[in-house]
Amino acid sequence: MQGLHLTADLYHCACESVLMTDADMLAQLCRRHTLEAGLTLVDEKWHTFPEFQGQPGGVTGMLLLAESHLAVHTWPERNGVTLDVYVCNFQEDNSRKAEALMKAIVEAFRPSDMQRQHLTRGDVDGPADAGELVFEDVAGQAYFGFRFDRRILDRQTAHQRLELLESAPLGRTLRLDGRYMTSEAEEFFYHEALVHPAATAHPAPRTALIIGGGDGGALEELLKHRGIERATLVDLDGEVIDVARRYLEKIHRGALDDPRATVLVGDGVDFLARTSDRYDLILLDLTDPDTPAGPLYTPEFFHRCKHALAPGGALVLHMGSPFHQPGQVRDLCRMLRAQFAHVRPYGLHIPLYGTYWGLAVASDALDPDAAAGETIHARLEERGIRDLEYYNARVHGALFALPNYYLRLTRD
Ligand code: SAM
Q: What is this structure's pTM?
């Protein structure tokens, strides 16, 4: 009985309209992709519905497979399609064939929005944990994953694949291009660590720029510093901001609409090239270097950041995993050292990233590791910052206490 059941609900399909109404054409397409996926066609049945309110009727089709079935239902009046691909893994694991067939049919309909479900059916030893196991790889060598009960969104934006998943332990969880970004339950690890060490080591931050960070988590932490008068957030992808506003309130807690915040959609490189503003803090809250954020992990961009900092200001960024991505972390530290007098790498384990994660503060004037615990504690008190989940005066020092393998990477 054990098998995989994929469903997809497709919205605003940009395919030829005839594909929604011509049963023969649709049958041929499904037959072809079924055979190409290596599945076994046993029988099939197709039905075209009569016209409905002056609109051509939709098509319902079923391909009976030796491995189970493919079902297709088109809704031409809504440009919508619902799909089922269900395979049992009786004689072999047909999961990849099912994924390939689903992918091919979805691509034929070209939806601009889609909701996917990924159900594990039956299990050899009785009911297994429900939900979809979603893996991520770290630098293509280590794999880790989490089990999710629900896939709320799965869409291709103009810049990246955006998934919104949900599970009881993590809550709503955002993934971009297959990388975990942030989750309701553990977002404080990353967002508090990105914001508070530099913001608290700075004697009086008033203006800040966040590049990326469309989920609003870093902005929410930043605005806890009462002295912040103006925070500008620039994210490449407006859909991330829209999804955050609609689904991730528990992460941004309304920060995206705070009167002190200016939230813009655009490329961070373009923004920094145009702005004449100066910032006490610049936070790069970006996807990884091998994504559309790549140009923001370069000497040229760090040079631009340096000149966009107000006197005494600091740049903060995450660098990846010192263990799994030593070359990336070493290179980024070198680039920063070429631009700034003080480069302070730090790090912490981030549950959603499956490993210890490196970050860094770079500045010509500010050395966060020189700030005494008493100073950090006093500033948190003065600024009324008490409800943190991770960061405190002692953790501040601990963040910068690097293990030797990481220290060695960042020294030369
Ligand atoms: N690593 C952080 C995390 O895991 O919480 C980053 C999260 S934040 C969602 C990453 C954001 O960087 C995305 O919303 C993405 O659109 C944005 N981004 C990528 N490239 C960018 C660019 N060139 N300019 C501005 N934002 C960019």
A: 0.76
